[in-house]
TrEMBL record:
Location in the cell: Cytoplasm
Keywords: Cell cycle, Cell division, Cell shape, Cell wall biogenesis/degradation, Cytoplasm, Peptidoglycan synthesis, Pyruvate, Transferase
Role summary: Cell wall formation. Adds enolpyruvyl to UDP-N-acetylglucosamine.
Modified sites of kind 2-(S-cysteinyl)pyruvic acid O-phosphothioketal: C114
A GO term for molecular function: UDP-N-acetylglucosamine 1-carboxyvinyltransferase activity
Principal location: cytoplasm
GO CC field: cytoplasm
Binding site for phosphoenolpyruvate: K21, N22
Binding residue positions for UDP-N-acetyl-alpha-D-glucosamine: R90, R119, P120, I121, D122, L123, D302, V324
Record protein name field: UDP-N-acetylglucosamine 1-carboxyvinyltransferase
Length: 413
């Protein structure tokens, strides 16, 4: 399956953002912490959600889907998520904390996902060990055992989002209090904590670098709506700005987009923020900027590729420094095929703006690279044929429909 993008189409109108992929996956994982019914609303129709739902069904949970909701209930019957599904998605590792907490044991293969660099799970395992679990490896699987985990002080060497989420889930049913220091600050961490608290958990400090979890004996059901997807919102902001368009981005939390909005404004794009939406408008040339990716509230690594596409036609040279992942420039050679002038030096990319990009046949290597190439195709002269669509479908619901509604000309074959 390929996406065919006819360029030079200015985007205008309005687009509504779905619930956050990076919030809903840990929330689904945390639903395993109770046998009671959990209802999750505004569920995005994306491949990663489909994959994690397949996994929890195999683990014995009952899953019903109705009107963009999923209802999860029943007992866990299995503590070994299947390799063939786990390898498809990095977020599968988030099942580890909830299964260990609930069952006292878990066996899981090392996870897959996007090819954007080395993402070891040593911080997760070190934290589980700190809570009293024994860790072993066997035939490519990691095995953790701990009949009733015990609260502890855990210091993360790096503010890992996944490790913070996994350890919250592991600690919520542990005996006593746990503290996670140097915790990740991302809004998705706060959303997970809010969801767990809606189930009767006692998690405080989420969104700060010290999170306290008071262990409880059990959790109950919940009815919950996750936060909007700040990366999807940022992607549409860049697409509109790249085409010199004007649009309303609806169903957002402007605070979560501050880093992206600030950099767009530096380039000359006009951003106006309201309670739950914002407007994007560009009617002048793109000014070059320098960007360094950092953990939240810094500039998100998940927006680096999209911003590089945008800066490819800036008037001057920009520098992007990737400090989060060491292999997140796989989109560069594809952008170069479209006429971008980009030079990689270590973890820095130097982007010398060109007058315009030209359509070409390109391939997405990962989710955000795919989004970047779509943005490039929207601005390019001629047609761009994008393959690797399976990566894009992991995180963007109905992206072709939404872009076409804004005035794009995209088809599939």
């Amino acid at each position: 399956m390929a996406m065919i993008i006819k360029g030079k189409k200015r985007l205008s109108g309005e687009v509504e953002i779905e619930s956050s992929k990076n919030a809903i996956l840990p929330i689904i994982a945390a639903s395993l912490l109770t046998d009671d019914e959990v209802r999750i609303r505004k569920v995005p129709n994306i491949k990663d959600v489909t994959t994690i739902m397949q996994i929890i069904k195999i683990l014995g949970k009952q899953v019903k889907e109705q009107e963009r909701q999923i209802i999860i209930s029943g007992k866990l019957m299995n503590h070994h998520p299947p390799y063939e599904l786990v390898r498809q998605m990095r977020a599968s590792i988030l099942l580890m904390g909830s299964i260990l907490s609930r069952e006292g044991k878990v066996r899981i293969s090392l996870p897959g996902g996007c090819a954007i660099g080395n993402r070891p799970i040593d911080l997760h395992l070190k934290g589980f060990h700190g809570l009293g679990a024994n860790i072993n490896f066997d035939n490519g699987d990691v095995i953790a055992k701990g009949r009733r985990l015990k609260g502890n002080h855990i210091y993360l060497d790096y503010p890992s989002v996944g490790a913070t989420e996994n350890l919250i889930m592991a600690a919520v049913l542990a005996q006593g209090d746990s503290y996670i220091e140097n915790a990740a600050l991302e809004p998705e961490i706060q959303d997970l904590a809010n969801f767990i608290n809606s189930m009767g958990g006692k998690v405080t400090g989420a969104g700060t670098n010290v999170i306290q979890i008071q262990g409880v004996s059990e959790l109950h059901g919940s009815d919950y709506t996750p936060i909007p997807d700040r990366i999807e919102a940022g992607t549409y902001m860049l697409a509109v700005a790249a085409t010199g368009g004007q649009a309303v981005i609806k169903n957002i939390i402007p605070e979560h987009l501050k880093a992206v909005s600030a950099k767009l404004e530096e380039t000359g794009v006009e951003i106006k923020e309201y309670d739950n939406h914002l407007t994007v408008k560009r009617d002048s040339y793109i000014k070059p900027v320098n960007i360094k990716t950092l953990p939240y509230p810094g500039f998100p690594t998940d927006m680096q590729a999209q911003f590089m596409s945008f800066l490819s036609c800036a008037r001057g040279s920009s520098i992007i420094s990737e400090s989060v992942f060491e292999n997140r420039y796989m989109h560069v050679q594809e952008l170069q095929r479209m006429g971008a002038e980009i030079k990689i030096e270590g973890r820095a990319a130097i982007i010398k703006g060109v007058k315009e990009l030209t359509g070409a046949q390109v391939k997405a290597s990962d989710l955000r690279a795919g989004a970047a190439l779509i943005i490039a195709g929207l601005t390019a002269d001629g047609s761009t044929i994008l393959t690797g669509m399976e990566h894009v479908e992991r995180g963007y619901e109905g992206i072709i429909t939404k872009l076409n509604a804004l005035g794009a000309n995209i088809t599939q074959n």
